[in-house]
Amino acid sequence: MGIVGEAHNVRILGSGEQVIVLSHGFGTDQSIWKYVVPYLLENYRVVLYDNMGAGTTNPEYYDFERYSSMEGFVYDLLAILEELEVKSCVFVGHTIKSMVGALASISRPDLISKLITLCATPRVLNDKDYSGGFEKEEIEDMFEGMRSNYRAWCSGYAPLIVGGDMKSEAVQEFSRTLFNIRPDIALSYAQVMFASDLRHILPMVKVPWHILQSSNDSNVPPMVCEYLNQNVGGPSVIELMPTSGHLPQISSPGIVVPLILRHIALDITQPK
Has this prediction a pTM greater than 0.90? Predict the structure, then answer.
């Protein structure tokens, strides 16, 4: 493993010609895919990595200037794929970090053959004629909570996002990965994620985009997936999953795993 791979804890599992890249979102690490991975190994080559800033990465490697925009994370993804000599892959992304795959596909459509996203959003703030899920004041309150008492904030944020109480396995799993992030990095990370507005790049995304969305998600209203579907530049499809919460791959793996497998195989570029 090269320098980039080591820094991002890259793991390559399974076999097969098709490469599947699994990318996690805010507050988590690659373990968020633990229920998905076993079902991919027989037929696919799976690439797992940790986004810089996750609790599993070295905090000394987190460059606040580099990661002051989503582009820093895009450069990381492309560097990982280059180091692994990946020629083409299906990118499976979660939440706002799904946009890393979308941005990468604009510059390298040859490298990203398909996007499959869970609970993706190009912008979380509400705007005129756009319901992203949050008002600016709510986001500022969240940042203040992170600054004043990060661990207390995590305890309240985890059940809200997952959709359950602290006793549930999924909430405990998310709490663990959230707690593991250094507080100042978590705040910086969150400020970039929640301040991003990538709606303007959607028409430039030409690769097929499979939009999987929890039907009950406090973070991403149904309008967001409709907005994605209507504004992307290439073929797209929406599948509303009968799941609750923003992390359905750990709260409802029995529903999510078959859907991901189906969409990996599904070709939406062909006429019906």
Answer: yes
